[in-house]
Structure formats: C-alpha cells, structure tokens
Write the structure tokens for this entry.
Amino acid sequence: MANHKSAIKRIRSNSAKNLRNRYQHKTVRTFIKRLRTTKDKKEAAQQLPSLVSLIDKLAKKSIIHKNKAGNLKSKLTKFVNKL
C-alpha cells in the first residue's frame, strides 16, 4: 500500500480514469460490431460519421493508438463503400 497522500490520491484517480477509459473503449467496440453486422448501405453510411468521430476522440485521449484509429476508420469506410 502507498505511504504518501499523493500516491494514495494517484491510485484513486488512476482507477477512476481506467474505468472511464474501459467504458468508452467498450462502447466504441460495440458500435463497430453493430456497423459491421449491418446489411443496409444507407443505414451504415448514416452510422459511419458518428463512429469515426468517437474513434477520433479515443485516439485524441490516447485510449487507443492513433495508428489503430486510422486503421479502424479506413477498414470501416472500405466496408461501407463495398456494401
């Protein structure tokens, strides 16, 4: 266990941030799965911009790596265009 007040606070804040980051990451993964199971091109094209925005936000906050964000956006855009 930590001995300093600042270390105790850091542990608390890190766990809170970890929970928040996990929740946001899981939410985006759910939206990605929802988009990939869509068969309708119109619906998929409607979902894509909001999903790209969410991916960009995760990359900006360093929840996911910026290259992973780029790869995800590219693959999802190709998927929607191929429908």
Summary: Residues 5-36 form the longest helix (32 residues). The two ends are 54 Å apart (CA to CA).
